[in-house]
């Protein structure tokens, strides 16, 4: 009798446990390793996983900022989701004139000091290259994505995207050392519970 109770309890526990596991939506971790033309790890590569479902799940992120400090953009690269607003406070005593001619977002903030009244909303996916009309050497990139599954590679050239629902995606990898206008690499990727790490080689040019 006691043994039967034990097995009943065990069976109940196992059922409950398997139910807990099944209740977790099918998600996976995806590891992407990006290398440059010489086969070396490529830091600051932008990695994204696109699909129709991912686009539907994409939401505007909290407002971000790119500061102008000592005639540089800080940070000089961000990745945001469509609809995210970015402010461009000028911490220098010289005036800057921030602009972009990129198709994904054309705008300009006329010569100013301090924080512009309105942030810029990035409303289309793509790469937006920023410059300053006064200081040619000032450059920054806003990479706009329409997916919750994105990130930038670390110094080891690697990024781990976790919580990715299983399914078929288009893997996108881009780096600012690619020639301007080059959208980077796009390839199909099926994300399963056992997707192996993806190694991607980008044909980048001169260092920057
Ligand atoms: Cu400037």
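Q: What amino acid sequence fits the structure above?
A:
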């Amino acid at each position: 009798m006691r043994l039967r109770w034990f097995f009943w309890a065990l069976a109940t526990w196992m059922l409950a446990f398997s139910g807990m596991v099944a209740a977790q939506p099918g998600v996976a971790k995806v590891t992407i390793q990006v290398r440059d033309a010489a086969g070396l790890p490529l830091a600051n590569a932008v990695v994204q996983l696109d699909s129709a479902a991912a686009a539907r799940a994409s939401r505007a992120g909290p407002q971000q900022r790119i500061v102008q400090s000592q005639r540089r953009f800080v940070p000089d690269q961000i990745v945001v989701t469509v609809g995210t607003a970015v402010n461009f406070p000028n911490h220098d005593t010289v005036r800057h004139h921030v602009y972009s001619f990129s198709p994904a977002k054309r705008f300009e903030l006329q010569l100013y000091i301090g924080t512009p009244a309105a942030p810029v909303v990035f409303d289309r996916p793509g790469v937006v290259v920023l410059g300053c009309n006064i200081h040619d050497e000032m450059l920054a990139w806003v990479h706009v994505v329409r997916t919750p599954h994105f990130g930038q590679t670390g110094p080891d050239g690697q990024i781990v995207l976790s919580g990715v629902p299983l399914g078929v995606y288009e893997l996108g990898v881009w780096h600012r050392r690619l020639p301007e206008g080059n959208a980077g690499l796009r390839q199909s990727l099926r994300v399963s519970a056992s997707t192996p790490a993806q190694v991607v080689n980008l044909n980048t040019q001169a260092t920057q």
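Q: And what stands out in the fold?
A: DSSP finds two helices and 17 strands in the chain.
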